[in-house]
Each structure stands twice: as structure tokens, then as C-alpha cells.
Design a protein that fits this description.
The chain has about 110 residues and is mainly alpha-helical. Helices cover about 50% and strands about 5% of the residues. The chain has one domain (about 5-100). It has helices at about 5-15, 40-50, 60-70, 80-90, 95-105; strands at about 20, 25, 35.
Length: about 110
């Protein structure tokens, strides 16, 4: 993974700026309350801030994977987005715990 983007992602997850949700990359409440993101959604939001709008939030764009230089399949020591989705949605780990995982395995 690109070292600069990795650090941006870790910092964003630890910042307290993002509300966490599960099973969706981004949740935009109808009532106008704060938008919530899953851990992967935070990375998608960072991509939007640096590169441009993501039109379809139902899938991770290939352009984002290329931008972040993410592995498509886990390498020996490294994780992949599937691990992040599992930690966020299935294991319901906090953003801080997910940031620790990214720091160690990406």
C-alpha cells in the first residue's frame, strides 16, 4: 500500500472525525445528521477529497485501489480490503483497532 495514503487512512480512523457504521461504505441519514462510514468508506472519503467524486458508493472503485496501491489479494504479511470489511462489519472492531491492524499488516 502507498505509505502516504496508508498514514492518511490511519490518521483519519484515529481522528474521531468519522462516525462508524457497519454493512455500508457510507450512510447518509435522511434527517441530515452526521454521515457515517465504515473503515473502507473512510478511505473512499479520503479518495474523494484528493482525487474526485465517487459516483457509486456500493462498490470500491478500481481507481481507488490503484490510487492507494492496495493489494487485491492478501500477501504473506499484508492484509487486504476483505480483512478490513470483516473487522468492521463482522467483528465490529473500533476504528482505532482497525487502524492498528492497517499499521501492522498493510
Amino acid at each position: 500500500m502507498n505509505a502516504r495514503i496508508k498514514q492518511l487512512w490511519i490518521d483519519a480512523l484515529r481522528s474521531g472525525e468519522y462516525e462508524q457504521t457497519i454493512n455500508l461504505f457510507r450512510l447518509k441519514p435522511i434527517d441530515g445528521s452526521k454521515i457515517c462510514y465504515c473503515a473502507t468508506g473512510v478511505l473512499m472519503n479520503l479518495y474523494e477529497k484528493e482525487v474526485g467524486e465517487i459516483k457509486n458508493w456500493n462498490t470500491v472503485p478500481l481507481e481507488l485501489i490503484e490510487w492507494a496501491e492496495l493489494p487485491l489479494i492478501a500477501e504473506i504479511k499484508h492484509g487486504d480490503l476483505g480483512d478490513i470489511i470483516e473487522l468492521n462489519d463482522e467483528k465490529q472492531k473500533s476504528f482505532a483497532e482497525i487502524a492498528d491492524f492497517i499499521e501492522e499488516f498493510f
